[in-house]
Amino acid sequence: MAATSNPLQELLTERDVARLLKVSVATIRRRRLLRQPPYPVRIGASVRYTPDSIATFVADAQTGRKRQGAGSATEPNRPRGPQAGRIDTVVPNIGPAK
User: Across residues 24-51, what is the average pLDDT?
Assistant: First the structure.
């Protein structure tokens, strides 16, 4: 009888990913908040990563290929990240109405 693999046992924590990639946990969290790869799987409030997403991230980094984040096909110009709602337009003060 062949051993079956439970995909939930293969999920990695942020700490596991940081250790594998030799970066800080803060770097992994920042990339997640900016919707940059590697892309996580959310289970309730838990954040986990699949080994396949890590392998894809490393392969893409080696080849210099960049992948678009989730939702980019439908909203290509939508701002992302902590300053997504920021408006940089300056409206001149035209004074009181006459």
Answer: 95
